[in-house]
Amino acid sequence: MQLLLVILVCFVVYILAQYARSKWYVRVGERLAAQAIPFSQQRSHPSFRILVAGDSTGVGTGASSPSASLAGLVGARYPSAEVVNVAVNGSRTADVVRQLEAASSGFDLVMLHVGGNDTVRFTDLVQLELDVQKLLTLAIRKGRYVLVTSTGNVGTAPLFPLTVRYLLQGRTHKTREIFLRCIAAQTQNVRYTDLYRDAKHDPFAQDPSIYYAADLFHPSDAGYRDWFACMSKELDQFSL
Questions:
Q1: Which helix (H) or strand (E) holds 52?
Q2: Which domains are assigned to the chain?
Q3: Low-confidence residues of the chain, pLDDT below 50?
Q4: How far apart are CA 20 and CA 223, in angstroms?
């Protein structure tokens, strides 16, 4: 009986410690989000126009500067292009639909960074698929090419307790399958950057202190560079 009581007390202490730890890192993430400035690039005579929409990974939360974000790295790759960034921290796919609805048209490339919040906030999967379909339909109207970048394996994020990570890994699989299915139904002008990798080959899992930012959830500069390297393979398929 005493042993069971000790085990119960240890379990309760562990749960409370994990909760306090997660809350602290969430507050760190909130500060990073408040400091993040979406990268944009204005040109008087741009060679082409890029629209960036999405969640915190479109904003660049976790990066040391706007130029170190995904949008910033794209801007550096295409220095003569105009980059318009309407991404907002915390956005789910339905929110990004509204971002596109409010945006202008005539872009050469529409970049969508979305899916992470649908994963961790457990958006209904049926509704998510409808939202992704609507998002892609809108994006095709806004630009000549569309590149979708969803989340990597959220289950590798040290922010979450180990048991929660297993749950989020399974959830990541389901979110990813929806994006893959919806994009497979589109033309070659719509492409998907698949950031999901086996843990053995995923730098976020192998070196989380390097690839995750201070909140242990958003990518660091190194994390965004890694994602951009994956995106570049898809960008190469577009005639920009």
A1: strand 49-54
A2: 2-235 (3.40.50.1110)
A3: none
A4: 26
